[in-house]
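Blackboard transcription, Thursday session:
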Amino acid sequence: MKPAEFYARDRRWHPPALARDYKTSVTRSPQYAAISLQHSASELTGPVFGHNDIDAVDNDLLANYAQPGESPIGERIIVHGRVLDENARPVPNTLVEIWQANAGGRYRHKKDTYLAPIDPNFGGCGRTLTDENGYYYFRTVKPGAYPWRNWVNDWRPAHIHVSVFGSGFAQRLITQLYFEGDPLIAKCPIVATIPDPQAIDMLIARLDMNATIPLDTIAYHFDIVLRGRRSTLFENRLEGN
Amino acid sequence: MGMKYLKETPSQTAGPYVHIGLAPGAAGFDIYREELGHDIAGPNPKGERIRVEGLVIDGTGSPIKDVLLEAWQANADGHYAHPEGGGEVEEGFRGWGRVITDFETGEWGFDTVKPGRVMGRNGRLMAPHINLWIVARGINLGLNTRMYFADEDAANAEDPVINLIEWERRRATLIARREDRDGLPLYRFDIKVQGQDETVFFDI
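(Written on the board underneath:)
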């Protein structure tokens, strides 16, 4: 069997471009319908990354910006899981990048002016490659909630931004990871851009006591699913005819 | 008894602080040995060296100043740097780049080489193009488009993707105009996310 196109993206599962309660989307959403494309090499291929691109410490946010002998303030957590495709097969050797606020809800970014302080020992970003089983992990601190200007009293739930590649450019995805039990999830207009509660549920990392390191670090489990590819017994028409 | 499929993880906006994760130098700090995506073509690419510049413009006509763009392109032979990319590429040719817009002006730009023609579906060659993926605060799912070249009229006229666009006047939104600067070919490509002359985006 030959791998063929990626499955069509379920546009009713993803957030629509225009979601009025998330005000910034109003002027940044295309009004014309996107043109649907069957895939060619331009969509089926994508950048390939290797261990030369990154360093081993890059997935350890407790250490990758801390002064020697120090560590960031906050709840020490592990975020781990697998990158799979829609066929439930692991996606090996793919780049996963994350970024987040510190434990007080402040980003290390020159445009963030929130009252909470910068943590001198926390950068707030990490990256890693999945292993042959699609497995990845990060060590970090649990990010804090923070206010943002949408309605006047909006607070983002604690979240980690996640960027994933897959093997083809059509699989490229950025999303956000939330934490089980956070009451702000249900109130957030950005979360609510996703219409289906089952889809939102895929963004909630679960407390994982078995992966928790006693007396040291609490673990959360978060699997990521990228688009899968059709297999065909028949002629691959990408180049045929 | 069917195959058990999973659903894709739903997208969320990259938000205003995408730079921290994907371009930390621009956020104001230095953390990685090397940031990814700043060298698309490598040290010894074949073909014509070019620069591409533009703006991303919102529905009010204003530049968006917190965008991250990724580019994916073939080399001058029309091969992608990928196992299914159609053939060999030069040592160090990656074909992938990542740029952000300037916080003050919204301008973005990258240096690369002009890609060759890539085989499309059903044995029909595509015109040279660079695939672009655009994320920002307020963009809930990354936008895919393609940049084609104004000096490739004949190839553009037979490109199977451009020809899918029913409205001929919208096709022009995908064509970067050529200007030369200091003897280097410069292609200008403004992307209009919404409004008059909205850029054609693709559901890939």
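Lecturer's comment: Chain B has a mean pLDDT of 96.
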